């Protein structure tokens, strides 16, 4: 699109998470007027750490925000997968992207703070929960629960796994329970029983449980995550310390001790969900990004990275195509095959042979939706 066309474009982004904030930054650099509508009254991320892949960091470099992100990260050279008792299964360098070879490990809260910090003042509107979206062809109208309304030439649905935009316009299929729970917290390096000695991610797997140790040494902490098979599909289940200890039976005694020492008030407990691939992500004036388009299980660590790549690809498509309609088709053609495959692989966790070997007969029948 011509620069003048892009500068006249009015864009509304629904949701100020990773995908929404990344899309807002990329789209604002085109010269478009961008407004972000977030349902929460304050932006904060719970949970623990994530890894920003080399290709993702390259996007931040392209947008001029690399340093703002990198300064609150720990750069990692490789990741390692081990058995429950610490025997090596695999050790691999992160897939490089050009000269960028490090994956940057970051706390979710630091990440969203950094993203918010690089958006222009006044762009993000808090307390705006989307109630209704009306697709008018060449524009879309928005109605929020607080009574506010807005209209835009392009609406970007970045409103997560339970997306209102997706539900009203593209797919009413419910999220899919994975038969797992995720227990996430952050602990001090001093409380890691000597298991964190560098900046590299390690995962221990056995009998249907995965334990992730993700160093956040720039803040003297470690992201400690347990993913365990469980038939309870309640979104935020109630789990006791004893329940957690049962999931780590047979693991390295140091991992058991870390679990035993946890303050349960600091543990984020969630049932694990994704969505089936959505057939179409866009109309002529509305498009989905991030979890709204392709929520995936966390086994490959690609959810946040994919959302950020979506924002970059959407901006690229608007720059390259002749119209918004053409751009949205190009964006979907570029990103959907990639995320369809990531969703598929993430549901496996590993290859089918490795799943059978590591988790023989361990997958329970999945429980119904809440």
Folded structure, characterized:
The chain is an alpha/beta fold and 370 residues long. The protein contains twelve helices and 18 strands. A hairpin with a 2-residue loop joins strand 14 (201-206) and strand 15. Helix 2 (18-28) packs parallel to helix 5 (108-117) and helix 2 runs parallel beside helix 10 (303-320). Residues 350-370 have low confidence and may be disordered.
SSE arrangement, N to C:
HEHEEHHEEEEHEEEEEHEEEEHHEEHHHH
Beta-strand residue fraction: 25-35%
In total, how many beta strands?
18
Oligomer: single chain
User: How many H/I helices?
Assistant: 12
Arrangement of strands in the largest sheet:
6-5-14-15-16-13-17
Q: What distance lies between the first and last C-alpha atoms, to the nearest angstrom?
A: 45 Å
Rounded mean pLDDT is 90
Derived from helix and strand composition plus strand pairing, the structural class reads alpha/beta
What keywords describe this structure?
single chain, 5-stranded parallel sheet, alpha/beta, 370 residues, disordered C terminus, 27% strand
């Amino acid at each position: 699109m011509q620069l003048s066309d892009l500068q006249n474009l009015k864009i509304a982004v629904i949701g100020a998470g990773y995908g929404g904030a990344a899309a807002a930054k990329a789209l604002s650099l085109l010269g478009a007027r961008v407004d972000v509508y977030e349902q929460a009254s304050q932006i904060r991320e719970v949970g623990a750490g994530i890894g920003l892949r080399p290709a993702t960091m390259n996007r931040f470099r392209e947008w001029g925000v690399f340093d703002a992100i990198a300064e609150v990260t720990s750069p990692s050279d490789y990741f390692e997968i081990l058995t429950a008792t610490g025997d090596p299964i695999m050790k691999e360098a992160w897939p490089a992207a050009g000269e960028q070879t490090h994956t940057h490990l970051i706390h979710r809260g630091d990440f969203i703070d950094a993203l918010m910090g690089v958006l222009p003042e006044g762009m993000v509107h808090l307390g705006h929960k989307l109630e209704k979206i009306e697709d008018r062809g060449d524009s879309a109208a928005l109605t929020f629960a607080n009574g506010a309304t807005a209209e835009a030439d392009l609406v970007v649905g970045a409103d997560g796994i339970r997306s209102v935009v997706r539900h009203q316009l593209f797919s009413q299929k419910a999220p899919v329970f994975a038969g797992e729970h995720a227990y996430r917290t952050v602990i001090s390096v001093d409380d890691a029983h000597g298991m964190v000695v560098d900046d590299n991610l390690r995962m221990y797997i056995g009998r249907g449980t995965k334990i992730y140790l993700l160093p956040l040494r720039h803040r003297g902490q470690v992201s400690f995550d347990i993913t365990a098979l469980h038939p309870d599909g309640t979104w935020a289940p109630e789990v006791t310390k004893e329940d957690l200890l049962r999931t780590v039976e047979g693991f390295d005694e140091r991992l058991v001790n870390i679990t035993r020492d946890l303050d349960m008030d600091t543990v984020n407990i969630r049932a694990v969900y994704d969505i089936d691939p959505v057939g179409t992500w866009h109309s002529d004036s509305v498009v989905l990004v991030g979890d709204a388009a392709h929520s995936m299980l966390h086994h490959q660590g690609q959810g946040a990275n994919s959302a950020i790549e979506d924002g970059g690809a959407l901006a690229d498509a608007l720059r390259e195509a002749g119209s918004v309609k053409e751009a949205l088709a190009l964006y979907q053609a570029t990103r959907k095959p990639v995320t369809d495959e990531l969703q598929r692989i993430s549901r496996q966790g590993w290859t089918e042979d490795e799943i059978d070997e590591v988790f023989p007969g361990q997958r329970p029948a999945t429980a119904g939706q809440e």
